[in-house]
Design brief:
With about 800 residues, the protein is an alpha+beta fold. The protein has 3 domains: about 220 residues, Sandwich (Immunoglobulin-like); about 350 residues, Glycosidases (TIM Barrel, Alpha-Beta Barrel), CATH 3.20.20.80; about 120 residues, Sandwich (Immunoglobulin-like). It has 16 helices and 47 strands. The protein has a 10-stranded antiparallel beta sheet, with no helix packed on it. Strands 29-28-27-24-20-19-18-30 form an 8-stranded parallel beta sheet. It has an 8-stranded mixed beta sheet with strand order 42-41-40-38-39-45-47-46. Helix 12 runs parallel beside helix 13. The structure holds alpha-D-glucopyranose (GLC). This is DUF5110 domain-containing protein.
Length: about 800
């Protein structure tokens, strides 16, 4: 066999036998190819490099599996970087850009190596991984993997090393630390060594699968699936951030969310009448609790039927949405995938779905019907482009009413009253989508991707119906790549201290699995009602997580931020306010994520891999998290305890966020105080903060503050655009990089050349060139730059350098303030 010719689009399977013979006869020369196919013992292996530092390996019995995916686009899969092939007695060497492989041509055992020839993943199984029954079990040495992260929001331990996990999307009401599987399947993980070197592995397979990180066999990685392709990618890093960028290269990044979705979101199952929703809105405003979103859960619907409204309780959704909008609040509605099985009742979603034949059927051709909130329900076949289009069009009415976003729940799919908690495996799905060959398949193949396709249908529908607005979709279940369509939350958690702590780890692992825009139900969803202390702590921490949504189940006492005594309410208010002041920082972090795949919320080692070398508990950072590059949040590792705790910082000289004080050492002993959440700032940070607003829709009145914390690599960024449209994709945004330099005479602040200009609504934005030079010479540890809101140019102050900014939210002038 010899390598295939350059850029083949389709495999020539009948040629395999001949090629194998040629190879055995030694016809191979050292040569460069764009993919490499090898066969042995009836098993075919293919290696390609879709991008620098990424190797894709596929294997099948007799022929390669179908080259199609719900996670990796056709264009990404078709891209090929050259592979240089050479051979010795035992093995084949394939060298690609930043990654290489060594294959035993008899056993097909494949070692993947980084650009320097260091082994990342040493496959032990080779062709014997394939079982005769259709499944497979890959085994490999977990080389250099002191830690393992990823696999979405699975619980267990934060570091997955030594654990084993199952991928099978499951409704996991009131889950706990030991519950597995949970709602999502994201078969991607990152192995990280104590010196910060990292690599990633993504198995693109939607079937029920398991990942064992040395639990059964020490230091052995075992990945098995009940069916579907052996199709995996190894990403060579070498830094943890590189791995996440490589994974984003494969599965895409999340779109930039509308800015309002970064505001505080208030939800409950359920606000039961429009009067109740209005009362919540009024209370938020009266209590001066900043907020941007109110959710309506299933009870707004007529008999829990998706895409209906109970007109007795919600007489006029359009009026409601518009009145809320006038108060700076947006409405998000739940729309579950189960359509009530209600023929002949004038239920439009059922009738149109039946007319278009988009509901799933059993092998006998009858609809599959399962019980969920509306009772007997039918389910769209989201793996057909046609069904997704039908689904997306169902949103036209709500969008016309001014509803701003949609919540796709129960899409594991969850089914009541059956032991499996989901639909039977023999339900027949039809695949007619993307570059898949049209075919029918069983629920066993589509189960784990059902939620992702549901949210995709919603996202694509809303995009189609409102082409210039950014959709906001929230999904509970999903699969790898689903970050392109929806934000997510960790499902039905419980109101406990343990969940508060575990929730952070879930969000961090989600962020390291492509899903940055995620949150936990603030206050806890189920179980005992939270104590005032627990609720307050949850608001404090929630305020620093990407999706900040308070939600709780039905029939519980109220859990809104104003519940409890005035001291607690005041603390919660201060933290919600702090989030709104930090909105420019949050927004820049969301924008960075949308470009790079680096999550907003990060374990400390992601920014500073050196902390791992400090030893235990990730160098003492295990219960901390970072927001963006610069803010380190350090809640107590035992949040329920009043006992002192020690905060380990990555280095000396970090700043206290609340006081600006610079720490001499690299650790601090703290006594917990319910009014405080310890936050530290990286030396070298430049953090933009804006004046307090009650909603992101309000224009901040007053200065944008640039808080400058001198130190090494001193840099920050302002990113601004109109917050809701796709104009930024056409260049209508402002990106201002700022640097600072310390010198013996003081601190110098440098505004770099702005990156983009644009026009919006025909009106040309005027971005003046920045003063590139010295801004202020002053001996202070940290200080502000202010941008005053003014639509006009202001002249330079006598003592200060003035610079102009001009964007949708800041038509203003920047002046250095002492
Ligand atoms: C599910 C959701 C929860 C929601 C409830 C009713 O349990 O996870 O958030 O409130 O359904 O729709």
């Amino acid at each position: 066999m010899r390598p295939s010719s350059p850029r083949p689009r389709r495999r020539a399977a009948p040629l395999l036998a001949l090629l194998t013979a040629l190879f055995s006869a030694g016809a191979l020369r050292a040569e460069t190819v764009d993919r490499f196919v090898l066969a042995s013992g009836g098993v075919v292996l293919e290696v390609s490099t879709p991008a620098s530092g990424i190797m894709r390996i596929r294997m099948g019995r007799g022929k390669l599996p179908e080259d199609a995916s719900w996670a990796v686009s056709a264009a990404t899969r078709a891209a090929r970087h050259p592979l240089h092939v050479s051979r010795n007695r035992e093995a084949l060497q394939l060298r690609g850009a930043g990654i290489s492989a060594r294959i035993n041509h008899r056993t097909l055992q494949t070692e993947v190596l980084d650009g320097n020839g260091k082994v990342l993943l040493a496959d032990l199984a080779g062709r014997s991984a394939l079982s005769a029954t259709g499944g497979f079990r890959l085994r490999g040495k977990l080389a250099g993997a002191d830690h393992v992260f990823g696999l979405g929001d699975k619980t267990g331990t934060f570091d997955r090393k030594g654990g084993a996990y199952t991928m099978w999307n499951s409704d996991a009401y009131k889950f706990n630390q030991a519950t597995d599987p949970l709602y999502k399947s994201i078969p991607f993980f990152m192995a990280v060594g104590d010196r910060g070197q990292a690599y990633g592995v993504f198995l693109d397979n939607t079937w029920r699968s398991t990942f064992d990180f040395g639990k059964t066999e020490r230091d052995v990685l075992a990945i098995s699936a009940e069916g579907g392709p052996v199709d995996y990618y190894v990403m060579s890093g070498p830094a943890p951030k590189d791995v996440l960028q490589q994974y984003a290269r494969l599965t895409g990044t999340a779109p930039l969310p509308p800015q309002w979705a970064l505001g505080f979101q208030q939800s409950k199952w359920s606000y039961k009448t429009d009067a109740e929703v209005r009362a919540i809105a009024q209370r938020l405003r009266a209590e001066r609790l900043p907020a941007d979103v109110i959710y309506m859960d299933i009870d707004y619907q007529d008999r829990a039927r998706p895409f209906t409204v109970n007109r007795n309780a919600f007489s006029d959704v359009r009026q409601l949405a518009s009145d809320l909008r006038a108060q700076g609040l947006r409405l998000v509605l739940i729309t579950d995938p189960h359509i009530a099985n209600a023929p002949g009742q004038g239920y439009a979603a059922y009738d149109s779905g039946a007319a278009q034949d988009v509901f799933l059927k059993l092998p006998d051709g009858k609809y599959y019907s399962g019980d969920v909130w509306p009772g007997a329900s039918v389910f769209p076949d989201f793996s057909r482009a046609k069904a997704r289009r039908w689904w997306g069009d169902l949103y036209a009415g709500f969008l016309a009413d001014g509803v701003a976003g949609f919540w796709n729940d129960m899409n594991e799919p969850s089914i009541f009253n059956v032991a499996s908690k989901t639909m039977p495996l023999d339900v027949v799905h039809r695949i007619e989508s993307d570059d898949f060959a049209p075919r029918s398949t069983s629920h066993a193949e589509l189960h784990n991707v059902y939620g992702q396709l549901n949210s995709r249908a919603t996202y694509e529908g809303v995009s189609r119906l409102q082409p210039d607005l950014r959709p906001f979709v929230l999904t509970r279940a999903t699969y790898a790549g689903g970050q392109r369509y929806a934000a997510t939350w960790t499902g039905d958690n419980a109101s406990s201290w343990q969940h508060l702590k575990m929730g952070i780890h879930q969000l961090l692992n989600l962020g390291m699995s492509g899903f940055s825009f995620a949150g936990n139900d603030v206050g806890g969803y189920a179980g005992e009602h939270p104590s005032p202390e627990l609720l307050t702590r949850w608001f404090q921490i929630g305020a620093f997580t990407p999706l900040f949504r308070a939600h709780a189940e039905t029939n519980r006492p109220a859990q809104e931020p104003w519940v409890g005594d005035a001291t607690h309410v005041e603390i919660r208010r201060r933290f919600i306010e702090e989030r709104y002041r930090l909105m420019p920082y949050f927004y820049a972090a969301a924008e960075e994520n949308s470009r790079s795949g680096i999550p907003m919320l990060r374990p400390v080692f992601l920014n500073i891999p050196q902390v791992l070398a400090k030893g235990d508990r990730l160098g003492g950072t295990e219960d901390q998290f970072m927001l963006g590059n610069d803010l380190l949040v350090a809640p107590s590792p035992t949040p329920e305890s009043p006992g002192d705790y020690k905060v380990e910082l990555p280095a000396k000289g970090w700043y206290d966020y609340w006081t600006g004080r610079r720490l001499a050492g690299d650790s601090e002993s703290l006594t917990p105080d319910i009014a405080r959440l310890p936050i530290y700032v990286r030396p070298g940070a430049i953090i933009p903060k804006q004046p307090l607003v009650q909603s992101t829709t309000a224009t901040p009145e007053g200065a944008l503050e640039l808080h400058i914390y001198p130190g090494p690599d001193c840099a920050g960024e302002i990113y601004a655009d109109d917050g809701t449209s796709l104009g930024y994709q056409r260049g209508a945004y402002l990106r201002q990089r700022i640097r600072c330099e310390e010198s013996p005479t003081g601190v110098r602040v440098v505004f770099e050349q702005r990156k983009a200009t644009g026009s919006r609504g025909g009106k040309r934005w005027r971005f003046m060139s920045m003063d590139q030079k010295s801004m202020l010479q002053q001996r202070v540890a940290w200080f502000w730059l202010r941008i005053w809101p003014a639509g006009r140019l202001m002249s330079k102050d006598r003592n200060r350098q003035a610079v102009m900014a001009n964007s949708s939210s800041f038509r203003s002038e920047k002046v250095l303030g002492a």
